[in-house]
Amino acid sequence: HHGIKQVLHDLGIEAHNAAWSTGLTWGGAQNGNTRTITSTTDGRTIGTVALATAEDYEQVVQKAQEAFKTWRLMPAPKRGEIVRQIGNKLREYKDSLGKLVSYEMGKILQEGLGEVQEMIDICDFAVGLSRQLHGFTMHSERPAHRMYEQYHPLGVVGIISAFNFPVAVWSWNAMLAAVCGDTCIWKPSEKTPLTAVAVQHIIRDVLRENELPEGIFNLIIGDAEIGAKMAADTRVPLVSATGSTRMGKKVGEVVGARLGRALLELGGNNAIILTEHADLGIAIPGIVFGAVGTAGQRCTTTRRLIIHESIFEDVKARLLKIYPNLPIGHPLQEGTLVGPLIDQDAVQSFTKALAAVQAEGGQLLIGGEILSGAGYETGTYVKPALVEARNEYHTVQEETFAPILYLIKYSGGVENAIDTQNGVRQGLSSSIFTVNMREAEAFLSHAGSDCGIANVNIGTSGAEIGGAFGGEKETGGGRESGSDAWRVYMRRQTNTINYSTQLPLAQGIKFDV
Ligand code: UN1
Question: What ligand 1 atom has the least distance to the C-alpha of 465?
Answer without folding.
Answer: 10
